[in-house]
Specification:
This protein has ten helices and ten strands. The strands form two sheets. A five-stranded mixed β-sheet has the order 2-1-3-10-4. Strands 7-6-8-5-9 form a five-stranded mixed β-sheet. It has helices at residues 2-16, 33-47, 58-66, 78-86, 119-128, 142-153, 157-162, 170-178, 224-234, 240-245, and strands at 23-29, 50-56, 73-77, 96-101, 103-108, 132-135, 164-167, 184-188, 197-202, 211-216. It folds into two domains: 2-98 and 213-245, D-Maltodextrin-Binding Protein, domain 2; 103-207, 3-Layer(aba) Sandwich (D-Maltodextrin-Binding Protein, domain 2). The chain starts with a helix and ends in a 7-residue tail after the last helix. The protein is 40% helix and 22% strand. The chain is an alpha/beta fold and 252 residues long.
């Protein structure tokens, strides 16, 4: 059965891929990293299309897009996508919402799991931790902005900053916890890839931040047909299980 599913997946990708495709420049949010990497590998093998992939937190992506670097496809958070749409950088009608991602609490595998059932419990978990990994605030990632907002509301922002282990993104923050360089982190659930990183669970809904991610084709794209075909493959029925297993939810 697994072999049949894999065959169907590859056939779907082949059907979506345009003939003679050469190279696609993609700018994508870190939260998409885990699921996108595998899909790109499969798609590239079957279609011959090569990818230049830039991945990073929101602030870094905003700078990369503003730099004028040739970009054929962007996969970013809804707020950043809206910015691009308002400034006329996105091809009309090309936006496709891929799903939404929540934030989760991460600890090292084998360590006691903190209670995170309520906002107060999350506060206590942060207070008890000696070190907290989070994305460099200068990169303006959604996860660290939500963490600081929550910490400020509970009067522990200075303590969280003092305990901070600065990371380059949610994936790096989770890795630092897995390596024992930090006790805890709050990152997008889809950014947890390190083997020794344990997801305790999602944040309580009262302090949760759901972020919708969308794909779209910039007006400057040099290969919009290949970009459109790749998005069609990403969002096809054959890919649905991959998105779900990676921690994505449908946009409500």
């Amino acid at each position: 059965m697994a072999a049949l599913r894999a065959t169907a997946l590859l056939l779907a990708m082949m059907a979506a891929a345009p003939a003679g495709a050469a190279e696609l420049n993609v700018v994508a949010a870190g939260a998409v990293r885990g699921v996108l990497g595998g899909m790109i590998d499969d798609y590239s093998r079957q279609s011959g299309l090569k990818f230049n992939l830039t991945v990073g937190p929101t602030g870094q992506l905003r700078d990369a897009i503003a730099s004028g670097k040739p970009t054929d496809l962007v996969i970013v958070s809804a707020p950043l996508m809206q910015e691009m749409e308002q400034t006329g950088k996105i091809t009309a009608g090309s936006r496709v919402d891929l799903g939404r991602v929540g934030l989760g609490v991460v600890v090292r595998e084998g360590t006691p799991l903190p209670d995170i059932s309520t906002p107060e419990a999350v506060k206590q978990a942060l207070i008890k931790a000696n070190t907290i990994a989070y994305t460099d605030p200068k990169l303006r990632a959604t996860s660290v902005e939500q963490l600081m907002k929550f910490a400020e509301g509970f009067g522990i922002k200075d303590e969280v900053i003092r305990k901070g282990v600065i990371s380059t993104g949610g994936n790096d923050a989770a890795a630092k916890v897995a390596e024992g360089r930090a006790d805890i982190a709050i990152v997008p659930i889809t950014d947890i890839h390190a083997k020794e990183a344990r997801l305790v669970g999602p944040l309580p809904e009262a302090i949760q931040l759901w972020t919708v991610y969308a794909a779209a084709i910039p007006v400057s794209s040099r290969d919009p047909d290949s970009a459109r075909a790749f998005v069609a493959a990403l969002t096809g029925p054959a890919m649905r299980d991959r998105w779900i297993k990676a921690g994505w939810q449908s946009v409500k």
